[in-house]
Write a structure and sequence with these properties.
The complex is a heterodimer of chains A (512) and B (353). Chain A is α/β, with parallel strands linked by helices. Chain A contains 23 helices and 19 strands. In chain B, helix 1 packs parallel to helix 3 and helix 5 packs parallel to helix 6. The chains are: A alpha/beta (512), B alpha/beta (353).
């Protein structure tokens, strides 16, 4: 007898249906798992047998063939334990109601005692299930939170194999439906521990962060150690526009697959803020590896990727960022599979101004030679710098005596301006694939950044007098556009251009 | 390039390493026995091969017997018998002013050096320096039309001579490589040491005598008390060349030397290029031409007043001026474009010199 059980797999960031077919053939006891399972899927045999036996059911001593269809794609992970076990028990007659069993799709890893354990990737699977018209899905109790926000599909959780079997057989109700929640509930639960108002001084940096948040611009913070670069960067998420539900689902899917989704909330409701250490490998940043897993840049999707001490990252890691910064996604090609992960993030990088860290500081003297500084700056390649819109210098000079004079703005106030500016951008780019000024293409640039003659003159003078590099041109236009949006003005004025030029510190001759 | 027998003798002398042979050559030189000098040479590389090699490297020799040899060098106790050159030898004929100073200079020093050099060049003088880091490099750069090393049309002539303490085909310091190449192409590189001589620290003070002797005036921009710059000044005083020193703040280490020689009255105090140009009997005509760019607004006046002569931090300006950061950034960038102020590393701003 052949049993068919519905389950799901994950390719890239999307789920797809997998039919788990079980056949029990007369012969020497043997367990064959086909359909390109990876190591953890192949080990299901031991878990499934123990789980079935320890739940008080019988395990056949015949030849068992399990096929994960479609057989052509690679199946990863332990989520097929539960459907395989159900399939075997259907064949054996332990699960008597085959029709009822066919209503459900099953996902879950089994413990040796029959316990159902959480697995990664439940969110994209539920979305796929909804799209395929599957009404009922059984997921591990540990994944219940993820299921809360997917409407249109009834999700049940069960604690162990026995509960599932008895529920299908109709003898007891071990299945609990998951209560649905709205995205607003999740958003309301978001709390930031930091606030811009705790940052003293640093007026330029704060203003620059506001612009970066409003336009989605990549930003580089340059300053001596202890000058508050990291603090500023960590405040950045508090002024970013809210994550929309669509964005949230996309981000949550990625985190669900990577297994980094917070099990207490079940969804990403605040923009992700990822800070990979500079020893990170290329695969850790880009994604991929033997078990294709999204990298840090994808985990930062719709959020912020913060590279602290940027020149310390390996050259190959930094160069790898170029393509995702341009295309907002990364294609990881491996011998076994090619996966595309979204990676639309805002890059915040920080660095010291020189190897000793004190160049430009009035507190400590810099001991670096000119060539050492030049070499240090050269670690960031031109094409990479080309993708960074603003370079901001921060410094460790404190003005305690001045700090009382002006109360700093709170993140909420800044955020309201950012939201308004984002709104203007969305209205302008309505019907296109662009969502922020930073991601404008050549076409958008020509359409949205028309300069009046006096603005044109300021820009030309800036190039002549301040020896800006040619690649700064479109960056300045984009930043000026965002500044105009923050002001609520339709046109870019000379003042906007001048301010944008002021944020291009590294283009200018850096050494005194 | 072809050389006469006298010239070949000079070249041979300038590259001789053996002390015995040098002595013999020196006596023969006084009497003009050129063949004897050539015969005494102990160098492994034959002179003809050496000359061919130099030609292939675009290096030529200006010997004591060349028409282009700068006669002012003969005032030296030990004039160089031969100068290895690369670049535009015509510059020797123009009036030269030496600009020297410390390698460990301040922003004030580099800006003054660049400004002075620019104005000297605009008045037809040639800036001579030693191509070291700091003041030397800033002085050479001042001779460039844009104040920095850029690609220039092939026929551009830059009024600057760099006197090296090592072979011309060596780059020292490495940070000035681009500058040295540009001077070789448009200006003039000079060294009394044959090609392939590495940089030896004892050669540098000695080459300073050539820097001084080539020039009619020596301007010291910034110098510490004991430094190579002070050696150049000593050479200049021995030769009777006018020495000018730019005063600095009494608290600045980089100006201790210049302030000291001003106090000792061992030089002329120099607060503008006019002081130096008088030596060359050049008088500047239009003075105010440079600064009449545009009207300065009230706000800009306020910022300049707030800066005084000091470097001011952005946050401090923000507080004292009571301006919103966005407004101040705009204003400062505009002022920077107009050349009124300068942005410094670390978000500091200062009035342009």
């Amino acid at each position: 007898m052949i049993a068919k059980v519905k389950s799901f797999g994950v390719a890239g960031i999307d789920g797809y249906m997998v039919d788990v077919e079980v056949d029990i053939i007369r012969g020497l006891p043997k367990y064959l798992l086909v359909g390109q399972p990876d190591a953890s899927a192949r080990e299901s045999r031991e878990r499934v047998e123990s789980a079935i036996r320890n739940s008080g059911f019988s395990f056949p001593s015949s030849k068992i063939v399990v096929n994960l269809a479609p057989a052509g794609t690679r199946k990863e992970g332990s989520l097929y334990d539960l459907p395989i076990a159900i399939g075997i028990m259907l064949c054996e007659g332990e699960v008597s109601d085959a029709e009822k069993a066919a209503e459900f799709a099953f996902i879950g890893e089994l413990g040796l005692d029959g316990e159902i354990r959480p697995v990664p990737g439940v969110l994209p699977i539920l979305i796929a299930a909804r799209e395929m018209g599957i009404k009922k899905v059984i997921v591990p109790a540990g994944n219940a939170k993820e299921a809360q926000y997917i409407h249109g599909v009834t999700v049940f959780v069960a604690d162990n194999l026995r509960d599932v079997v008895t529920a299908i057989n109709g003898t007891a109700t071990g299945l609990r439906p998951v209560d649905k929640k709205t995205y607003d509930d999740a958003k309301a639960a978001v709390k930031h521990s930091l606030d811009l108002k705790f940052v003293r001084g640093q007026f330029v940096a704060k203003r620059a962060l506001e612009i970066a948040a409003a336009g989605g611009h990549n930003i580089l913070l340059i300053g001596p150690p202890g000058s508050g670069k990291t603090m500023l960067a960590k405040c950045f998420p508090t002024i970013l526009p809210d994550l929309t539900f669509a964005e949230s689902i996309e981000a949550s899917k990625i985190h669900s697959i990577a297994g980094t989704l917070d099990m207490t909330s079940g969804i990403i409701a605040a923009r992700p803020f990822r800070t990979p250490h500079h020893t990170a490998s290329r695969a850790a940043l880009a994604g991929g590896g033997q078990h294709s897993r999204p990298g840090e840049i994808s985990l930062a999707h719709h959020g912020v990727l913060f590279l602290d001490e940027m020149p310390e990252y390996s050259r190959s890691c930094l160069e790898m960022l170029r393509q995702p910064l341009e295309d907002n996604c990364i294609t990881v090609a491996r011998a076994q599979a090619t996966v595309e992960y979204p990676a639309a993030f805002t890059l915040i990088a920080s660095m010291n101004p020189c190897p000793c860290g004190n160049y430009g500081s009035r507190v400590q003297k810099c001991t670096c030679t000119t060539s050492a500084i030049a070499k240090y700056l050269a670690r960031l390649s031109g094409p990479l710098m080309d993708r960074i819109d603003m370079h901001i210098e921060v410094d460790n000079v404190t003005y305690d005596d001045l700090s009382g004079a002006r109360l700093s703005e709170s993140s909420t106030d800044v955020k309201s301006r950012v939201d308004a500016a984002r709104g203007r951008q969305l209205a302008r780019f309505d019907g296109t694939n662009t969502f922020s000024n930073a991601k404008m293409g050549e076409e958008d640039l020509k359409r949205s950044c028309v300069l009046c003659p006096s603005s044109e003159r300021v820009l030309r003078d800036a190039f002549d007098k301040l020896s800006l590099s040619a690649r700064a041109y479109s960056r300045i236009l984009k930043v000026a556009r965002t500044i105009a949006d923050l002001e609520g003005e339709a046109d870019i004025t000379p003042d906007h251009i001048a301010e944008a030029v002021g944020y291009r510190g590294l283009d200018r001759k850096y050494k005194v | 390039m072809e050389y006469t027998t006298e010239e070949r003798a000079c070249i041979e002398m300038s590259r001789e390493q053996n002390t015995e042979a040098r002595k013999k050559m020196a006596t023969a030189f006084v009497d003009g026995r050129w063949r004897e000098i050539l015969a005494a040479a102990t160098n492994d590389v034959p002179l003809d091969t050496f000359i061919t090699n130099m030609n292939s490297m675009n290096i030529f020799c200006v010997t004591r017997f060349s028409k282009t040899y700068p006669l002012s060098l003969l005032n030296l106790e030990v004039p160089p018998v031969n100068l290895y050159c690369r670049g535009n030898v015509e510059l020797f004929r123009k009036p030269c002013v030496a600009m020297v100073g410390t390698r460990d200079c301040t922003r004030y020093g580099t800006e003054v050096a660049a400004k002075f050099a620019r104005e000297f060049v605009n008045n037809g003088l040639v800036v001579v320096s030693g191509l070291a880091e700091g003041i030397d490099a800033a002085s050479h750069l001042g001779a460039f039309p844009s104040g920095k090393v850029v690609v220039l049309p092939d026929d551009t002539i830059l009024n600057t001579i760099a006197v090296l303490g090592n072979g011309i085909n060596y780059y020292y310091p490495k940070s000035n490589t681009a500058l040295q190449n540009a001077i070789a192409k448009h200006g003039l590189l000079v060294s009394e040491y044959p090609p392939n001589t590495p940089s030896e620290r004892y050669n540098f003070p000695f080459r300073n005598r050539i820097v001084a002797a080539l020039s009619k005036a020596v301007v010291i921009v910034e110098a510490d008390l004991k430094s190579g710059t002070m050696i150049t000044r000593d050479w200049a005083l021995d030769l009777g060349i006018d020495v000018f020193a730019v005063p600095g703040m009494i608290t600045s280490y980089a100006s201790r030397g210049t302030n000291a020689i001003i106090r000792e009255a061992a030089c002329t105090i120099c607060t503008s290029v006019e002081d130096v140009l008088e030596t060359f009997a050049i008088y500047m005509k239009d003075k105010g031409q440079e600064n009449t760019v545009r009207q300065i607004t009230l706000e800009e006046q306020g910022i300049i007043a707030a800066m005084k002569s000091d470097e001011v931090h952005f946050d401090e300006l923000c507080e004292t001026m009571g301006l919103h950061p966005k407004k101040l950034t705009t204003l400062l960038t505009k002022m920077e474009i107009s050349g009124l102020i300068k942005k410094l590393p670390g978000n500091f701003f200062a009035c342009a010199i």
